[in-house]
TrEMBL record:
Enzymatic class: lyase
Protein name: 3-hydroxyacyl-[acyl-carrier-protein] dehydratase FabZ
Gene Ontology terms for molecular function: (3R)-hydroxyacyl-[acyl-carrier-protein] dehydratase activity
Gene3D superfamilies from the UniProt entry: Hotdog Thioesterase (3.10.129.10)
Record has Transcription as a keyword: no
């Protein structure tokens, strides 16, 4: 919370385990049965939505980017998602481990390779493209 601007209910990471600013990050999201999303996705068979797994990966990647002093105060926005693959469902009780490696960054645009695991089981992966903007531009005041 000290690094990224996201807050409940859209804060998708609970803890950062490893951080190499500007290079890589490992973070976790603990999924309890009390998560509001499980009430409707799907009743009787709760599954954490793939789009929220991607959001969690992106937020983890944002920690790696925004932890660099030159990017402090910026807001990361999705610019694209490529090669997204969802291997197996993520369910209540899982601890989602998010690993993101930043592979390119130039002129406020970047690319990260993200993977989401539960234990050693790969659940999802994607190439995440993002833009860094000033906070005032992100909320339309720019």
């Amino acid at each position: 919370m000290e690094i990224i601007p996201h807050r409940y209910p859209m804060l998708m990471i609970d803890r950062v385990l490893e951080l190499e600013p500007g290079k890589r990050v490992v973070a976790v999201k603990n999924l309890s049965a009390n998560e509001p999303v499980f009430q409707g996705h799907y009743p009787g068979n709760p599954i954490f939505p793939g789009v929220l797994i991607l959001e969690a990966m992106a937020q983890a990647g944002a920690v790696a980017v925004l932890s660099q002093p030159e990017h402090a105060g910026k807001v990361p926005l999705f610019a694209g998602i490529d090669d997204a693959r969802f291997r197996r469902p993520v369910v209540p009780g899982d601890q989602l481990r998010l690993e993101v490696e930043l592979v390119a960054m130039r002129r406020g645009l970047g690319v990260g390779k993200g993977k989401a695991y539960v234990g050693d089981d790969l659940k999802a992966e994607a190439t995440l493209k993002f833009a860094l903007v000033d906070g005032s531009l992100a909320n339309g005041a720019g």
